[in-house]
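## Example record

The block below lists the input lines for one assembly entry, exactly as stored, with component labels intact.
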Amino acid sequence: MTNQYEVVIGLEVHVELKTQTKLFCGCANAFGQDPNSQTCPVCLGLPGVLPVLNGEAVALAARAALALHCTVNSYSKFDRKQYFYPDLPKAYQISQYDQPLAENGHVTIQPSDGKRDIGIERIHMEEDAGKLNHLGQRLEDAEGSLVDLNRAGVPLIEIVSRPEMHSPEEARQYLVELRTILSYLDISDLRMEEGSMRCDANISLRPLDYTGSLADLPRVEIKNVNSFRNVQRSIEFEISRQRQLLQTGQRIVKETRGFDDASGSTYSQRSKEEANDYRYFPEPDLPPLVLSETWLQNQREALPQLPDELRQHLAQRGVAERDVEVLVQDLNLYHYWSQVVELVPDVRLVTNWLLSDYSRLMNAKGLNFATPQVSADGLASLLTLITSGTLSGKMAKEVLEAMFETGETAEAVVKRLGLSQITDRNAIKEIVSAVVAANPAVVQDFLSGKEKALTFLVGQVMKQTKGQAKPDLVNALLREVLAAYA
Amino acid sequence: MNLTEKEVRHVARLARLAISSTELSEATQALGRVLDYIDLLNELNTDAVPPTTHVEAIETVWRQDRVVPSLSPEAATANGPQVSSQMFVVPKILDRGEE
Amino acid sequence: MGMIDWDAVQTAEHVQRGEVSAVECIEEALLRIESTNPTVNAFLHVDGEGALAKARFMDHNLTREAKANLPLAGVAVAIKDNMVTTDMPTTAGSKILEGFRSPYNATVVELLERAGAIVVGKTNMDEFAMGSSTEHSAYGVTRNPWDPNRVPGGSSGGSAAAVAARMVPLALGSDTGGSIRLPASYCGVFGIKPTYGRVSRYGLIAYASSLDQIGPLARSVRDLARTLHLIGRHDEKDATSLDVDTIPESPIPTALQSLRIGLPEEYFGEGIDIRVRTLIEKTLDQLRESGADLVPISLPHTRYAIATYYLIAPAEASSNLSRYDGVRYGLRVAGDDLIHMYQKTRQEGFGSEVKRRILLGTHALSAGYYDAYYLKAQKVRTLIRQDFDNAFAQVDLIVTPTVADLPFKLGERDLDPLQMYLTDIFTVTTNLAGIPGLSQPVGLVDGLPVGLQWMGPPLSEDRVLSAASALEAILPPPEWPLSGGIQE
Ligand SMILES: [Zn+2]
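Predicted structure tokens for the full assembly:
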């Protein structure tokens, strides 16, 4: 038996779909409402009710599948997954078992050793459960719980990866890229803190000399971790816990574990090794789902530009690789960027300004590009003042800060502060001549070969013009005037 | 196919039924007889037969994504055996695994 | 002929013409219930006040023209207690739903009320429709109006008994393996189980979702037709509801000469009570004499139907009944923690037959058994459907006895569930195949009714009703138990 192990990670991601109504009834799919105010006989699981599928949920799920390079099955069906829990009104969840909506997709990640596709085994649709509010600090010592069924029946997709990630960092990258792709589709709020995106991680350690099936390795599932950061932390903890067990000759128990944020550790939730017996069987209340090629084509056409396409597009426009990723990760920023680039064709200038000074000011104010402080037009006119030579970079920064503070246009700030670069050759030449005349000793130094003397003279000219003279022009004119002395 | 009391007890747990020991032995016997009878089906070779999950030839029934008014929280919880703050109250949840 | 003898169509016509008021119709029903129900126990709940208020509203506020547009104007109807109603409690015959009040009406209830029918009460049934005798109700047995020592059949025994005892002209039942036709036969009334998907199941408390259908019980074929015409509509709240044309309001007259009727050998073999067989064969002779072409056919997989049914139905039931967990409605028995509460509630709330089927169904779906039981049953279900497909390629309709025997005595089949299950042997096949089946009274033997069953291809209810109507016309009018058969 070896002491060398390969880490094997698979992720199951649940995503709530942003439909108007729930998956099987007409209740509003809305977060944060009064308890049990978004419920009806169907989602309360009252006697006699029947589910009717929300067609829009299928459309959104299919778009997610297509964007993740999955094959959408023309025939899929719904099944009942049965277990008792107070947040599950019917004591079964309508889900898809052996014939899911979509299969065989991938997400591309970029670990240090190059790009790699992480396989997606399947995507299926299911209904969400309600929420329990425990009376007490923790579930363990709660005297009871309160059941709110507003969330019961909200449409979910479950995206199941293949166990093809080998480090916490790869798992993080997979999640980031997955969320980026889904965010482009605008099918979900994707808020982990609100539960509209949830992640379970399966972790096992494979001895390098192990040749059996991965499915036979003892696997630990960490349930419901509430942020990407914590997914990474919980996996890190779990790897070292399992490694320690193995190295001390102990057995790893197949189980479900939770993650404790404060201690950064995982803890056992379900102690028995016995798997749940969910008694899946085909849902008799719902006819099978048969999707036509025309319908699928419509969904394909409804897809927006996806991150990879955008990466290519930005690279072609000459955006640096590092900047591309920043733009790709923030679609609002990208949309803002495209508006500015429309008006100021200097891609490099626009990108630099947006990603450095503008972003710094936005961050300082805690804003994001969904609600930009200065409009794209406003930034474009500022940048135009730079390209036309009216403002120096340094002046432009000052103007931008003022625009942020007061909401004025770039032109208004320039006018108010009397900024604007002096580009009038004759006006500067007059000042240059005066400075040369007033500093004969320095001129002498320069003429005798001391290049540094020129810097002093430039400084004097800038001082007299209050910094508004264009520095390279001052330089050129000084040399021109001094040449006459030589 | 022989059914044991152990199997029936397992099934009762899955179904959340606290059956008594008398009921357990009665049920084991009665279900055993029914399952013996059901063995009849094994006379048939069904390897090539597709299962019937729906007798009707209908597929893909879906509705518009249009909101229909919900019940009021009062109406939603009106039948609740124990209700507090418009929510159903349940006793404490102990994880007892498969018990 | 007094009001008590009127069928639903006659009643409605009188109300439409203003010859009797809706209040009179309801009062007649309530009086009859008052005198007869204490012995029969057909009703679990009667809402006399509510029904009279609706009748009064109809009498006072509707013009004759408005009433003429109500095909069931003033007709008192009884609803099996597994269809939810906002005006009355709904228990499905179970203690676990004691006190439950639905915030919505079943689609069928809405459709009947829209047609002018007035619901007077909810009828007794085997708990969650699991049974063939209406002995397995948490609220006492229903007795057969022909002989109070005998069962009315089940599970819609309350509805059948209420119609037979002439408490109401019309009732709704549900049929999962024979639960309309069996009690119709035992009580001597007409009952039809429509094609699966014909009638919306929205608001029907599910027993076995892929088999359940709602249908009417009545004292004439035309009442069945009119009621099915009204309730057999597509419903967006039921994804399995078929979007097809509704059947005609009245049976279309059909000459029996034009019909080719199959007699499946498997339904006329051993095990049929000789008295039942004799009367059915006499009826078949009458059909023959009227020119119908009766041909022997075979439905070879019939012998597997009960085994198939008793896997599929309990499996689906075990799932459908999981929602009764003491959290949101119905009975809750306190427990130390959640699981104890679940277990005690369900243990005390369900009767023994229901628990037996939950255990059987849970077992059939549990890990390691699914393929051998549930999947196997679904495959045999396909073979049973194919039997009918093949048969209906040769014949227009099929005729069989509805049930092999006469109503049995209360308690007689208590000890052996399997014996009870076999009662459904002639009726379960239509549920498994999803096709319509109608039971028609064809006479009495030893003072007890015998029913004949018609079966037709999917969506052939119009043909089934026409044939039944033609047979009804050549038979002497059905008899009704005197005063509910009960010593008065
Ligand atoms: Zn709802």
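Chain C touches chain B through 71 residues (CB under 8 Å). Residues 484-488 of chain C have pLDDT under 50 and may be disordered.
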